[in-house]
Design a protein that fits this description.
Layout lengths: L28 H14 L3 H14 L11
Length: about 70
């Protein structure tokens, strides 16, 4: 490798807005197991599958209907 590199003519990453951000969330074990099983069947990582599902929910503006037991 070179000791010095010249990046003066470089351009900004056009995909920078699409980069992923690492977050920490708490998810039930049975929910993780569900996505891991589905991901294994489809041959993709389970975190990618969860991301795809959440992206679909966000793009379609899916609304969650909550009903609390009394």
């Amino acid at each position: 490798m070179r000791d010095n590199y010249d990046f003066s003519d470089s351009s900004a990453n056009p995909y920078a807005k699409r980069l992923k951000k690492q977050v920490t969330i708490r998810i039930d074990e049975d929910t993780i197991a569900y996505f891991k099983d589905m991901a294994a069947a489809k041959g993709i990582p389970y975190q990618s599958l969860i991301n795809l599902y959440l992206r679909e929910c966000a793009q379609s503006r899916r609304d969650l209907k909550l009903s609390w037991r009394t």
